[in-house]
Design a protein that fits this description.
By secondary structure, this protein is an alpha+beta fold. Helix content is about 55%, strand content about 10%. The strands form three sheets. It has a four-stranded antiparallel beta sheet, with helices on both faces. The protein has a three-stranded antiparallel beta sheet with strand order 3-2-8.
């Protein structure tokens, strides 16, 4: 019996799936000659267009990530590193180095029995054609890339991925028990309140000073009213103007008194907030939980914590701490004060006191001195890390031994700035091919739906433009409101000046 499943030709590749098609760039300044050699690797030229293609892929993916997690891109490429170069230039340099390594991987492929099959070659050619078809002439010109460059790039990625996997498979590493052994623990932490008393006192003092100044202003305003009324009595000609000025001044006095009341209310609110803050005694809550856990160390800590404060969270952790007794913690994920106490506990024991750090109060229990499941996971992670490091070290050796020349003048014509955007969009569907899989009678076959992850097209980021326009509109509204407020304040000042001049005129007359 045969079972037929459909897969895209692209998915048959090992190193092609990282490439995303780019199209729709409209920046005229980005055009350059992609056929020029950005570098040579052991005599083989690296076309600048290939570097451009990889750089734009990195740019689009990075910007999409920023939009997804932060909601904006901001200054990403124009900022400067500690060395003084822009992050855009650093990204170009890093990309060029990666492509140089890809050429070296292709040179070393035979040493690891890595080759590209006929099926992979066919898929690469189809992918390159799709790339060129999905892009506009403007985008291709901006990228400086040709179809042959795309095929070369995909071939290099395929070789690089194959050599990477072969090197890792052939590399043997040792992970000692001391490195892998993991202890597990349960803990609850209470946020320590910020030091607000001094700030509250300063705020209260400032509020009191503002209140006193406002009261003085009110008294001066009342005196001005009295003087104005006397001036009205002395001169009949200025009576009408002075009475109007007096009414405006009285209104100003009422507004000032209202401001005094608001200031006093703000001071009362500050005192209320301070009292509420003091009412939450986090250390007392931690101590209450600790008392419960000391009576029954095996109790459900989360249930006990929620009974005290429903907002409290309980966590589980693991690490290479209590089994190595050196207090030299490689993993600084947790506060050292917590780890030091865990290092002194026996299995199942609760820390006898609340553990206080700069930011938290902890209640902790050591669950297992040696957690076998966590230890095996850690061992696998360490093995993977060491193999990856061995691969990176080997690449560095290849790079150092190779004859590589960078044409910096050519590389400098490729720029990556915040004003030049690239965006990933949905690709054209890739051609499908049927794959027949032999299945025994009665056997169940799990199928996996696949979505082509590569070869998308680039277009102008309309959504970002809409967001920027909305932000600009909001900023404009704020500016208008501020301007209106300034006009009101200036008008009030002018009215007060007019009242004062009228009073002086009346006094002289």
């Amino acid at each position: 019996m045969k079972y037929t499943t459909k897969r895209t030709a692209v998915l048959a590749l090992t190193g092609v799936m990282t490439l995303s098609l780019l199209a729709g760039c409209g920046n005229k300044e980005a055009k350059f000659d992609g056929t020029k050699a950005a570098a040579t690797v052991n005599g083989t030229e690296v076309p600048l267009g290939m570097v451009s293609l990889s750089v734009r892929e990195r740019q689009a993916q990075t910007e999409a990530m920023y939009m997804a997690f932060i909601g904006q891109i901001g200054e990403l490429w124009d900022g400067r590193t500690d060395e003084g170069t822009t992050y855009g230039q650093q990204a170009i340099d890093d990309t060029l180095t990666e492509i140089e390594d890809m050429y070296l991987s292709r040179e070393k492929a035979a040493d690891y029995n890595v080759e590209i099959t006929d099926a992979q070659k066919t898929a690469i050619e189809e992918a390159a054609r799709t790339f060129m078809a999905d892009n506009t002439e403007e985008a291709i010109e901006a990228l400086g890339v040709t179809e042959d460059m795309v095929k070369e790039y995909l071939e290099l990625e395929t070789y690089s991925e194959g050599v990477h996997d072969a090197v890792l498979e052939a590399t043997e590493v040792e992970v000692t028990d001391d490195e892998a052994n993991q202890s597990s623990f349960t803990y609850t932490r209470f946020n320590k309140p910020e030091e607000t008393e001094e700030v509250t006192e300063e705020t209260t003092e400032e509020t009191t000073e503002e209140t006193e100044e406002t009261e003085e202003a009110a008294e001066e305003t009342e005196e001005a009213v009295e003087e104005t009324e006397e001036a009205v009595e002395e001169t009949e000609e200025a009576a009408e103007e002075t009475e109007e000025a007096a009414e405006e001044t009285e209104e100003a006095a009422e507004e000032t008194e209202g401001a005094v009341e608001e200031t006093e209310e703000a001071a009362d609110d500050a005192e209320t907030e301070e009292t509420a803050e003091e009412a939450v005694d986090y250390k007392a809550e931690a101590q209450e939980l600790l008392d419960v856990m000391l009576k029954d160390p095996a109790a459900d800590m989360e249930e006990a914590a929620k009974a005290i404060d429903d907002s409290t969270n309980v966590y589980t952790g693991s690490g290479n701490y209590t089994t190595v007794k050196t207090n030299d913690y490689a993993d600084e994920m947790y506060d050292v004060e917590l780890l030091d106490v865990l290092n002194t506990l026996k299995e199942g024991e609760v820390a006898p006191e609340v553990i206080e750090t700069e930011d938290y109060y902890y209640v902790a229990r050591l669950d297992k001195v040696l957690d076998e499941e966590a230890t095996e996971e850690k061992r696998a992670d360490l093995e993977s890390e060491k193999k990856e490091q061995a691969y990176e070290d080997l690449k560095a050796e290849w790079h150092e031994a190779a004859e590589i020349t960078v044409n910096q003048e050519v590389v400098d014509t490729l720029v990556l700035t915040d004003s030049h955007r690239f965006t990933l969009v949905q690709p054209t569907a890739a051609p499908e091919e049927e794959e027949e899989v032999e299945v025994e009678e009665g056997e169940t076959v799990e199928t996996e739906e696949t979505v082509d992850p590569g070869f998308t097209a680039l277009e102008e980021n309309a959504e970002e433009a809409v967001e920027e326009t909305a932000d600009a509109a909001e900023e404009a509204v704020e500016k208008v409101a501020d301007a209106a407020e300034e006009v009101v304040e200036e008008a009030a000042d002018a009215a007060a000046d007019a009242a004062s001049e009228a009073a002086d005129t009346a006094a002289k007359d």
